[in-house]
């Protein structure tokens, strides 16, 4: 019977539901959401690949490719901390669900190439649904 | 050789105008009902051989049944055969009485059972006192008297009982094959079965209480013989128990005879009832013998605390149980109580009988809940229903009596059906345990469905049993005395009955893949026919319940009260207290049922799925189960709740017996 | 002084003393914290028995060949049942007198036990097949 | 008939009953799924209830990695759901095996055993993400019923 | 007597987790309960051989999402002992704060599940409603709601600034108020007591013999709590183990309820004493040697056995989780219980299968 | 004839009312729990969706039982609207209850089986109460006919308050609300999954749901008999009763069947006897 006062208080007051996705609450500053790589600044040093506990990043310095499997990533931000150039960062929004899996594959300019900032300015996107 | 006396009842008076040949007809029919079965019994006993028996039994039960139908179509009568072959019947019966008691005494002597010897001796003494000191042999007592009540009984006994005997042919053959007997004991078996029918017919037709007493004792003897038929130790003990309990009832009967003779000067039922109707007559002098008669009825109807004999009777071959439960023996008990009901109408005795019956109803229902043995469930349910009948007799209004008679009719059919079903099942699967009947549909589809039909007719509307129960409850609600406890007991009791019936019906229907039918089953004709007939009867007669009511039941209640209990228009029962629409219900439920069946048929095997087992369901060797510890296959099992700690026989019986004894004492004491 | 974290200092114990030791710990009111098994790589395993009384831990070390049955302490400490079965799964050890032997099915299914003899024995064995 | 069908379709989109199976999850995603049912997120707004029984469910929420023992259970549960049905794999583990995908006893993501309609990334996936996942699943169902288009995959936005 | 054999799980609405029991009941009394495990077994301890010791922090966090932070903490403390690292004291206090927040959310979660176990849905909802405050704190301060990944070997990765501290205190005050409103319902309500009192009784002696830990042990009146060992900053904080002598389900729920309040108090103490130092110390070299390390999880004492071999991969990481220790007591509680009490008895050890099987 | 047509209309409206009641119930429950809650029409969406699902059954008896359950519940409601006999109505209702059990028992699923056993025990608990309440009504009005209740001048509640409470017990059990959601409950969070309903799915589950709506309306209809004299009073009584049910559901734990038997039969019957005696004497 002790619950009575509680439920009555609930029905008198406003519900505590956040009406997501119709209303969204401003995100917390430090939330570890979607991992993004500003591929311009990436030097393909492989630190992220080496430190990643989930081993979901593959860096190919020769090709200038940085691949990350967002469905294996555990959003721990170790890579972010490890990145010497701070090109990796995390948005404070979670990654949205998708009807199929893919690998985020970014094409940057390989480090050795002198014309680094000329060719691949824009990140190429490739949706490669897994077999 | 016969006379028709018209001094008892206007109904009967009409009969005095009947033509002579009709009288002869009557003569023949009574003979056919009472004496013929005895002759047939002798015939089966002496003409040995399966072939002969297979002819004699069907023919004689058919004749008995025909006689019963004939009697019923004649309507009420009263009739007094004076002598057979020049021997006065009264005298003959007196002699036979002593012979019978002597025989029982001998049996007791052989078993050196002091209790039975004592009880028998008491009866002998009582009869001696009655016959040689009390009885004024000059007064004429009409021997037989029949009204709708007795005729209904005769019909049930002869038809249902006859079917059971017929079923016995096939059953006993297999039964004896199981037992590997060197010498068939079937002649003895059928001797007593047929004798039983005759005695029962005699009992319900008798107007002279001392005749009734004779038949009463014959049924006691028959039941003793039949219960002990298999000769095992258990059978013997149980037979003995049945004997002493019924003998105790016999003592009460004799006591009642003495008191009645003393206080009213007659042993004619009709006279006594007529006398009791006069104002101021319901004094202790009349009520005491009535109480004794009720007591006798209770023992025979296996009311608490005498329930154990009937349960013990389960050791006998199934036809015996069926016979005892549905159409004979126990029905004799309630018949007597109902028969005498007008004599104690409106007295405290009546209220006490009602309470006692209601208590038996709830107690036996509770005991049935604790049973997994199918036959025992049936037994307790019988006791419970008899309790309900007795409660109705105690309520003693015309509606209540109507309820009681309806109960007798429909219970007899459904219960006989259920017993025969259990018998057939037991012979096939080797167990009478409800748990063993799980999924019986896969093995014996037809019998399973018939059993379920039997159960459903026992507990659900629009079938006759429920109509009767409805009448009972409504009349209980309008009862004048002791209403609240009565109603609560009936309410609880009927909830308990639903409990044990529903779970039984449920387990039988076990799983089959949707759309797939199990293989047809084979059964001897003598087993299948009674099953089909009784199942058809249980349903069909329910459908005809308005006719049953107006043709059999209403006239029977007319004897008890002036007011008619119910008016029946277009299959709708109605009185001040309520309405029960039999036909509309039958129609709607019937249509719905057919539709439901069709819908069920439509769902095909493609919709089949295994039961939910937390995701680990697995099938191995056709068994359904789940993947258990160590990756082992675990077959699931389920058991009904018998709640031994609440409803167990050993737990409950003691307190039930104590309460029952107290109630009985109050009942007997209250009269004085 | 009990500590939360200690460099392991375990008393060596012989195989035949394990059960007796367990019994005496049981009688002294010790709680069996757990057992730990380490594959030493030389055909032996280290089995540690960790006991606790009022937050103070006592450890025993049994160095035992992998293929020989280890005496089970589950008859003494029922709680050892799970650990021993787990070690059976992981190291393919045998236990003598285990009260309820899951026979290497506590955690693992056919698929594993048939392809990897003992998942915790060698680092290389855990490399997945596909 | 057309009207009834419309209604039924409406019902399908407005009453996705879910059954949740923890398929070797670390509980992180599990409790987030549970949290979705509780006042702050309250997915009953969308008609979602956790029926806990595959036979009643329309949507199977799977959290965690599939291992050799529970893959059979997963399959069993999926098989016991009457059509039409949808599967949502939740968390890194459910979608791909997550950090555990190299363990000896791990089979991988849910899609190794049953077809998956929606993948919800995260470790654990936030309740918000799970709600998004259900909404996406409804879009998928809608598309399958021919009432709408398949939701698009955005790799980078 | 007729027996019913019931598979309890692996997928089952009462427990979100795949605990699987084969129950044999008569009427509704349990006569036999045999567990089946392995539905969550991943074998993550072996990952130590292919992940380095730093990466293992994030992997042991994922032993279990409910007690993840404390797993990481225990693992880190073990390594710190092995490698002889002195952790800065601010880090120690922060570890206390986050681990106690974890305890609060774990206990609230359990209280809710427990309420659901005896069919008290609205109570379940309330506990989970107020639990969201802790989740918000986690999300705001550590960057994730559940698996917060704040521990590293040598210290912590995140700091709490002054505004955050004040906000946490505020939230905790609100939380405490709301929690206290539910106290009477949880501990005194007639229907609740009917379902919990006398269910799953475990005497103190049995509890020790069967190796029970945590609230399961303390609910039987044994005052043992690994926080008494003084890891992190617990040696500088005031608290007493919460116990209750009855040993039944009610006692265990009381212990957890009180512990939730106690944890809030500890967080407050820790915040008020938060020293100003570095967040993490440098960790030199590679781990070598054998260490045994214990901490108090929400469900009880957790033990790590670590063996390093001088390489970046650990030779052996062995985790003995509290539920693993509490399962034998559960098995002892079940026989004789009623079927309806199975969820209650099972829940009172606060089973965490993913911890158990790793 | 007129009553018959009116009754048919009533019968057709019953599922609508039942579904709306369920919707309101869910919404109010949500608010009591501080949740936003589902749309009021949610139960209809649920049932429509279920109707559109592929059938999945273990055997055919289940299907038959589901149909008979709905049929008898509807029939009972029809009898109510036709102002028929209370006891008869009760018996007809029993058909449904029994077939629900039979359907569950015919499946080799331990959850359904145990659920069926518990359902039977629940029937054991509420059936006597309902019968006794009806007897009480018949004592007050002189008959079991509903029509005669309407002929009364004073509301029944005044003379049978305790029997109304007893009926409240029955209502709680029938509604499957805490503390009596023992054999099955709305959400499967119990040891029996969903008890008797476990093995039903899709369209057949929808049927059972509709049948349940009939049952709920019927029992509320019975409650309404206690204040038949004015519409306002009747509505007020029903609102209060239903609100009380929802509240009780939200402030109680689920109890066990032994407790239920003891309490419902103990307390309920004592209350009823008391009230019956009161009626009997006056
Ligand atoms: N058992 C366990 Fe844990 C805790 N507390 C830990 O080691 O929850 Ni998942
Ligand atoms: S966030 Fe963690 S798991 Fe994801 S890519 Fe970075 S390091 Fe790897
Ligand atoms: S650590 Fe940063 S710079 Fe280095 S490869 Fe990764 S993303 Fe590029
Ligand atoms: S995705 Fe992360 S949180 Fe979810 S189950 Fe896997 S490890 Fe746990």
Automatic annotation (TrEMBL), chain A:
Residues 93-131 are annotated as: Disordered. GO terms for molecular function: 4 iron, 4 sulfur cluster binding; metal ion binding; oxidoreductase activity, acting on NAD(P)H; quinone binding. Keywords: 4Fe-4S, Cell membrane, Iron, Iron-sulfur, Membrane, Metal-binding, NAD, Quinone, Repeat, Translocase, Ubiquinone. InterPro entries: 4Fe4S_Fe-S-bd (IPR017896), 4Fe4S_Fe_S_CS (IPR017900), NADH_quinone_OxRdtase_chainI (IPR010226). Residues 33-62, 64-93 form the 4Fe-4S ferredoxin-type domain. GO terms for cellular component: membrane. This is 4Fe-4S ferredoxin iron-sulfur binding domain protein. It comes from Nitratidesulfovibrio vulgaris (strain DSM 19637 / Miyazaki F) (Desulfovibrio vulgaris).
From TrEMBL, chain D:
It comes from the Bacteria. Keywords: 4Fe-4S, Iron, Iron-sulfur, Metal-binding, NAD, Ubiquinone. Coiled coil: none annotated. Residues 26-136 form the NADH:ubiquinone oxidoreductase-like 20kDa subunit domain. Its cofactor is [4Fe-4S] cluster. GO terms for molecular function: 4 iron, 4 sulfur cluster binding; metal ion binding; NADH dehydrogenase (ubiquinone) activity; quinone binding. Belongs to the complex I 20 kDa subunit family. This is EchC.
TrEMBL record, chain F:
Its main location: membrane. The keyword Transmembrane helix applies. It comes from the Bacteria. It holds the Pfam family NADHdh. The chain crosses the membrane at residues 61-81, 86-105, 125-144, 156-173, 225-248, 260-281. It is a multi-pass membrane protein. GO terms for cellular component: plasma membrane. Keywords: Membrane, Transmembrane, Transmembrane helix. InterPro entries: ComplexI_Subunit1, NADH_UbQ_OxRdtase_su1/FPO. Signal peptide: none annotated. It is found in: Membrane. This is EchB. The keyword Transmembrane applies.
